[in-house]
Design goal:
The chain has about 260 residues and is of the alpha+beta class. The chain has eleven helices and eleven strands. The protein has a six-stranded antiparallel beta sheet.
Length: about 260
């Protein structure tokens, strides 16, 4: 019954409106994201500063795991404190809604670069992009965290600067709470969400595939695997197979970085 009630709340919930004021301080400019956990808005504060405001969805507020995940994102941003990640500003409740305010990072997501701007990446260019992102992942892992959501909408580029956003699913490597809060049966989702460094490499394997496919020109209507379709070097294929855990996976970012560096 509780699940039905939560679903009804989810379906009936609407995002905040443009020009709404939150806590008398933040004015909604536009909604820039909507996910299972919350709504994300671009806002301007009473001093004119542009920030990102995250709102926890009402049905998630009913779940202990949802409330904890929201708190955890704020804690993770404060703990990591790196120029490539959003700065945490504040967390508060207003009108029975939970909010987090963080820095707005300018740039284009790789999702936008590929699907809106039609950017095409060669094997060499794709591996160079991956290497730059791995530098940031090295910092995350070095501080004992796993991001668990390194997808093309969550990785930004602004000229030669790279940013990683959305730490809502991040976990400490020794965090065992996921065993209670998550029951993941689908293998691919489990590989993405495992609290292990290799889950980030798995996600980045898919990130790399998106980049490689951006320059792919199909020559056949026959459905084939990426190994058959993509004309890439043996070394790149070997890296991808390990990232996607088709072969013995990478367990440390330094080993993956060494292999990528050898290819570029």
């Amino acid at each position: 019954m509780k699940r039905i009630y939560s679903k009804l709340i989810e379906l009936s919930e609407t995002p905040l409106k443009t020009s709404d004021w939150i806590c008398g301080k933040y004015k909604i400019i536009e909604m820039i994201g909507k996910g299972s956990y919350g709504f994300t808005y671009l806002v301007k504060d009473d001093l004119g500063q542009i920030s990102v405001l995250k709102q926890l969805r009402r049905y998630k507020m009913l779940e202990a795991s949802g409330r904890e995940a929201f708190k955890r994102e704020a804690h993770t941003l404060k703990a990591l404190n790196h120029p490539a990640f959003p700065v945490f500003y504040e967390q508060f409740e207003d009108n029975q809604k939970q909010f987090i305010v963080m820095e707005y990072k300018k740039g284009k997501t790789f999702e936008d670069l590929i699907f809106q701007e039609n950017s095409a990446f060669s094997e060499s260019a794709a591996l160079k992009e991956l290497y730059e992102i791995l530098k940031l992942v090295r910092y995350i892992h070095g501080n004992g965290y796993v991001h668990r959501d390194l997808r093309i909408p969550n990785i930004l580029k602004n000229e030669e600067e790279y940013y990683i956003i959305d730490f809502g699913l991040a976990r400490k490597i020794n965090d065992q709470s996921h065993k209670i809060e998550e029951n993941i049966n689908h293998l691919e989702k489990r590989l993405f969400r495992e609290v292990s460094f290799k889950s980030d490499f798995y996600a980045l394997g898919h990130f790399l595939l998106f980049l490689l496919y951006s320059s792919y020109e199909p020559t056949s209507k026959k459905q084939q695997s990426w190994e058959e379709e993509l004309q890439i070097s043996y070394s790149a294929k070997k890296i991808l197979r390990k990232m996607l855990q088709l072969d013995e996976p990478y367990y440390e970012v330094s080993l993956l970085m060494n292999d990528v560096a050898a290819c570029i």
